[in-house]
């Protein structure tokens, strides 16, 4: 179940490829080129473990979304087993199975396993450290202490919140010392603790040395998000700390992360079916705090909430990742108490577990289909890259430089074998006078340079690209416009509008019963000085059931740019009030002045007048 929920449709849910994921992909490409580092400085600095795993998957699967996310999905799947082993070692096999199931089906760890970011790596290494450390403490074998130290040392190469774990282990050590009061606690912890410490120190030594040599590189991100910054606490440090503490505690059952890239906005960690078992598990641990495993679970949860409580945007589901899988042990313990009643064990508990699975699937499916999720995962940039990769027709592809500069996903996803030429709009490409060419343009600027770049003879088309929206932008907008230049095909005008405009070709495609795509190809015998609007109307017994009026080429190649030997492809997308029936619903075409709204007269190819519209045959 854990594998299915993490690997199914991994490339498309969530949609897009967010820039943090793309930076991991770009650094993975650098690794494959031979650039080896202990810490990667791009994008505010990142620990290296996930990048090296991404380099491996990129070597296998290429520059794809799947390659960037695969390491997270496999790590999340493997953590199901580690969760079981730790919970079973601390409590019982049944608690272990319940905790493993909850890890497999809970939305938060599922989402962490489906985005190509490094936080998910911290969870299995920290859980495995505690599991192997438990075996070492109980069996007093040196090899377990050394393995635990190795795993713990490796966890420092995963994600920033690991730096809170020394405090966690110190508190656990103090608890064990106090619990062993009157006994020789050294016999239980020594020399094993020494082997653990030495192994951890050896594994982390390279990273510590790097931090000493360049502290800003490794520690810079902390200062940017800490509530100690007056810009974040607003001059009220203690009030901010109190508020963040309650928000951090409330993330379990009340209100979760509101950042849409991390979580369906505001959804708590546990759905309503698991909230009561969670609270029951917390109460059980509080009541049995003298048991080392119950105390360890409480300490683990409290300390590892620190990274989100002490930073902005509390609760932040990436910074709080260190509480996993501990948080899932609480509802497992609560369910385990219910299992003491045989009737509940085989009726209520299965219903709760399957119901929680159903809620997760429902909520995550709705989340991935939400338009804002696509915008914030920068799906428009991914669509642009994939459109470039799919362009096997153009002999040259011109990509405005701002796209590669501002969207790292484009730099990662675009196939380097594609004939892409980057250009600055202030220095436009030279005139393209032969062959086919694609141009991907930022439309929110003067596009006059296209008249020189795409001179006649040519067939020109323009297509609006996918929508995009930044984090602080209120409305989505077309991210790019794709202009296509092709050689002029054989010509045979269907009809004439006014004195000089010819309709050369018409294509009607029915995308579904209520939507038509009508593509018109225009030409002219002489330059046009008037701005004209093309319209396509669909009627039923004289009543209009659908229409589209716009300047040709979606407004990106106006009639004032038209010249002889320059054909313009013009697509109209029409939504109908009723299902389209070619036998009953005529489609008519016309042109009118944008200033006067007067329609141009229409003539047959032989010059005979036929009114001010032309019906598509």
Short synopsis of the structure:
With 617 residues, the protein is α+β, with helices and mostly antiparallel strands. It has 25 helices and 17 strands.
Essential attributes:
single chain; 617 residues; alpha+beta; 11-stranded mixed β-sheet; 4-stranded antiparallel β-sheet; 16% strand
Please identify the structural class as seen in this structure: alpha+beta
Biggest sheet record: 11 strands, mixed
The N- to C-terminal Cα distance equals 55 Å
Neighbour order of strands in the largest sheet:
2-1-3-7-4-13-10-9-8-15-16
Describe the model.
The radius of gyration is 31 Å and the shape is elongated. It has an eleven-stranded mixed sheet with strand order 2-1-3-7-4-13-10-9-8-15-16. The chain has a four-stranded antiparallel sheet with strand order 12-11-14-17, with no helix packed on it. The protein has a two-stranded antiparallel ribbon with strand order 5-6. Strand 5 and strand 6 (477-478) form a beta hairpin. The model has no long low-confidence stretch (mean pLDDT 93). It has 617 residues and is of the alpha+beta class. The protein has 25 helices and 17 strands.
